[in-house]
Amino acid sequence: MSVFTILTVMHICSLKSVFKVAEQPSGQFAVVRRCRHRTTGVEFAAKFIKKRRSKSSRRGVTREDIEREVNILKEIQHPNVIALHEVFENKAEVILILELVAGGELFDFLAEKESLSEEEATQFLKQILDGVHYLHSKRIAHFDLKPENIMLLNRSVPHPRIKIIDFGLAHKIDFGNDFKNIFGTPEFVAPEVVNYEPLGLEADMWSVGVITYILLSGASPFLGDNKQETLANVSAVDYTFDEEFFSNTSVLAKDFIARLLVKDPKKRMTIQDSLQHPWIKPKDTQQALSRKESAVNMEKFKKFAARRKWKQSVRLISLCNRLSRSFLSRSNISVARSDDTLDEEDSFVMKAIIHAINDDNVPGLQHLLGSLNNYDVNQPNKHGTPPLLIAAGCGNIQIIEVLMRKGAEIRAHDKSGANAIYYAARHGHVATLRFLHDKKCPLDVQDKSGETALHVAARYGNVDVVSYLCSIRANPDLTDREQETPLHCAAWHGYSPVARALCQAGCHVDAKNREGESPLLTASARGFVDIVECLVEHGAELETTDKEGHTALHLAVRRCQVEVVRCLLRHRCQVDQQDRHGNTPLHIACKDGNLPVVMAICNAKASLDLPNKSGRTPLHLAANNGSLEVVRHLCLAGANIDAVTNDGKTAEDLASAEHHEHVVSLLGKLKKDNHKLSYIQQLRPTQTVQPRIKLKLFGHSGAGKSTLLESLKCGILRSFFRRRRTRMTNAARHPNSPVNSKPPVSVSISNLYPGCENVSVRSRSMMFEPSLTKGVLEVFSPVHSALSAADEQATKAIDIQHANIHDFSVWEFSGNPVYYCTYDYFAANDVTAIHVVLFSLEEPYETQLGHITYWLNLLKALTLPQESISFGGRIQQPLAVVLVATHADLADVPRAFSGEFSYDKERALLKEVRNRFGNDLQISDKLFVMDAGASNSKDMKLLRSHLQELRASVVSRCSPMTLLSERLLAVLPTWRKLSGPNQLMSWQQFVSDVQEHINPLVSQDHLRTLALQLHSMGEINIMQSETVQDVVLLEPRWLCSSILGKLLSVETPKAIHHYRGRYRLEEVQALAPESDVDELLQILDAMDVCARDVTNPTMVDVPALIKTNGLHRSWTEEEEEESLLYGGVRIVPAEHLTPFPCGLFHKLQVNLCRWSHQQKPEEDGADDNDGDIHLWTNGAKVSQAGVEAMILLVNHGQGVEIQVRGHDSERAKCYTLLDTLCSITENLLASTLPGQLTAKYYLSPQQLREHHAPIMVYQPKDFFRAQVQRETSLTNTMGGYRESFSSILAFGCAEIYQWGILGTDVHISDVPLLARRKLCRMLDPPDAMGKDWCLLAMNLGLTELVAKYSNGTPNGTSDPTAALLQEWSGRAGSRVGVLMAKLRELGRRDAADFLLKASPVFKVNTEALGGAANGYPPTCNGGTSYNSISSVISR
């Protein structure tokens, strides 16, 4: 395979191995085809550029021009400019994979409209200007701006996006060097192009002026009767604003054009000037009104569009008619072409013929050829290609027949020697091949490069062509000039079906090219594992070598093709074969430091100590290159560390010479054999099973968790002597809801704290309000006030016990909501744990169900969803859950004859719980009903037995212990003492310490397995970090019980700040006197438990402890101004009506505090209110750029409500603030509760303004119903009036609303992963009427997927519905509204309704908004912690 000089971004590989390209091009000379990525299903446009073969050739594009276009496309990334994704190259072409711009030309789109105001026209022109502005900012001139190059990305959306395309003439302008050229389209080129003067960015602005002129009038300003006249008009700037065309055009529009169509480039408007022109950006109402009232001349514009569309055809017909008349007058004159020249009229005949062939115009071609006497249809075009070959490439058999009747020679060939069979094979036309073969067209003709039709079909991946040619006995073993067979071509480009077809046809699988490569070597080097499998299956020799002595394994290792390496090793290839330098594949992998390949080859029993010709073993090469992990693995596998090279050097000597001290240290520790053997022995599994797993207990306060634990600890004798704990009263255990409770205490602040009568604290903008200074402070927290009396007995935070619970590490999670904000790091981070959920039977049935739902939803919400969806949306490793009902004795639950409690609602409750959570959690079949204090009861024994069964099942799946894991268990207490007051360590430090002090041979991967085992046992806790590395908590009890229990406990001494959740640093230090307070607070900040106050470093906020209620709970009418706008949203759980778990609102308050710090103005004179934040129980108020927002926890914790208000002139800022706060909330949900699916409802702006309660909430179904009825407003059933979409969704801001996409038009890929998983659960299961996903696939036109997945079993790993949605997302029109309609057609209204609820109602295209957002306040990072956990520990 010959190798070309390539651009840095180009791949010399097969386009069709990555993309599925449309089989039918638009013509022989068409350069753009639609293609689809085979993996993602996303569609792109493939632009095929023919390369110029030699400098003297005039055919094709020079490499310099191709490189220029590619380099420019690489540099640009803008919403209004076409994007380049990839570049491929083969022998003949360079293929650019571009963004698919499928909406057609802008002018064609506008021509379909009945009317168009200038205001609407400028919206499109503004996009063009934005794109040009971006290009000019990078000194790129397009030089070919014209209507044909102004396209729409998607014409079916409400506000189509403009895309500027075709950068074939674009240049990077060097202002220090003059650039001159004559190119472009005559109508649109600038005078400096015509006059061959220096060119710059100004040439594009001239073209913009011409486009605008045509857009407004339907006339072209400089178009003459011919090219010369047009260019003369351009040079003279000869144009007028004819009244016939510009009668309704505004003065501003004409001024805009006139400032662009200026001959002197220096006096022409720049792109910056254009964007600021009052026609584009009106300065006052009068200018905006004139633009709105003026209109485009649609009558003339439609005629212009039609005239332009057919201009080429009309001109061609005219030429052909003139040509026909000329022939009639010269009936006896031959028009045969000479060998080297072709007169002008003959060239037009050839153009007409080719035009007819490309358009499949059979009647037109017959008419044209019938009017020509003595015309030789075998003469080639200027590229040396006869019409018959062009027709064969287009695949039109009727055209070929017409040409043959006119005398076309079936054996004709082009100047390179290719015949019609070759052309048809290249473009994939099997029927044409069959016709040509029947007409005796030669089959195995080779062109000048030696290629046959089979070669070209294999190179382009046309498997049907290859199969047909083989079936008619085409020779598959003919070689080209490089001695490559068609199988080499298929192997090089990665076409597995082609390779299989050739192998099945009996081709020579071990043929070698000029470089000595067989197809197996080629495929292995290129990484095409499916072709390697095919070749081996058909007997390819695994040990064949090229001229350098490389086997397939050598080449795969050298190119880092890991999957090919594994494939070859599976087929037992020779692993120790040496190349001409004596290197084995293991030598190459060690030199490259490729650990996965080294591991695979070592596992295949490769020789570890085989020297190459320099006497170097693989260990020498790894040490010399400083590959520590490779050295570690080789030593562990048994490599000889004392081996020496030809010049007497050991691996340690080589590492020392290169200053690889870490490698030197490792090898030094291994010098003694007994040490090395003991290290290896430590890593081998023993017969010892994992001694314990975690048992986690959840339940509301008073559910009996602690009592149950005491009972589980007790044996028979101890149960007689155990004291029953004092039980809390019902009121204390189950306080009133925070939402409807009234504050039980209302005291004067002066009574609580003498001397504070006139307190006005301004600290980080969290102030006491005026009501406080008057002496009244409402102190209220249902949790704190109710639980304070019993807090000494209640569990604090997370109580961890390792002893006496039957081989369990017990983690009891407090039912006190103040601690919930810490649970996300500990509750569901271990799939080997058993999760016990307790609830009290003293409560009503609905309350019992609510408590269970809350805790199960917590476990579900904390489970990270997998990107790949399994059949039925199943979870791969669901958490094990046991339900325990307590207080059966107090609830008078009857006993069965056997002595067990018999709860009559057990079956109904289990059924309901399984319906809700059965797909997400592994819930035990039995509900354990008991008296938690009866340690020796039969119910308790059954629970003990069940827990032991679950434990045995889990342990059987766990890896056995190793000597190293036992050693780690032994040294952990010492490490905890040495760690100091804070028991946290970065993962990298943990790895380093183990390798340094315990076992230098343990790898990171091996150690992670051991660490997870310790994590499973409850000895350590691995805390996942969003940043670079994870964190190891050496002593979970230190953080979970001591620190969090003390900090968040209501026993903490009270101070005035605590009612607002504020602490002084010295108070925090007093809670943990042995800890470094700064480090501790950084850790808690990273957990979103508290927020450091950067404006007052001595204070820290802990929102979970806020007791202040009602600080600006709502806006009042006294504050109202007539010019204020209102709007808001409510974010709610989409599946289960239960409060958000894990103290989500407390965490949200922490994130809002951080965000507010980022908004504080630094410069003098800025608005002091910017960045203000006020916190209270279940609420917060923030402000930014003169706009205010309130964030509230509503509906008993089941919703987060964000309300925003601002002045009428600040509509965009209102939307920006709402969008920012929604982003903060959604980002927090995604990071804290990744398994929690939410829906967004919208609040009535009018009722927010009127302070109406309750507020009308608009749900997604309301918007969908209105969209279906083509309405743009919703009825407020409470108020009896209608509110527009724009006012509800975008504060009435037209600029934002026009760039938004409403729910039904949202692309299916924007539907959240959790929603798609739920759809899979609904559509995958078989149904009596058929499989719904199959019916849906057929309705969506994806019948091929039915055959692919119909035989799949429910145990399969791939989900058919997920695959269907993924495939469909790459098709045009894959919108939510279409999918809902299809689901309703199938009778699956439930699935359609769920999709509607979970899909976005309104999505703003922020990229397209681009410059429109200029002047909007900047958004922030969503309140990301300043101290991510790993960054804290690394410091």
From TrEMBL:
One GO BP annotation is: positive regulation of apoptotic process
**Domain named Death: residues:** 1327-1399
One GO molecular function term of this record is: GTP binding
What Enzyme Commission number(s) appear in the record? 2.7.11.1
What's a single GO CC term here? cytoplasm
Report keywords, A-Z: ANK repeat, Apoptosis, ATP-binding, Kinase, Nucleotide-binding, Phosphoprotein, Repeat, Serine/threonine-protein kinase, Signal, Transferase
Q: Which family does it belong to?
A: Belongs to the protein kinase superfamily. CAMK Ser/Thr protein kinase family. DAP kinase subfamily.
Q: What is this protein called?
A: non-specific serine/threonine protein kinase
Q: What is the lineage of its organism?
A: Eukaryota, Metazoa, Chordata, Craniata, Vertebrata
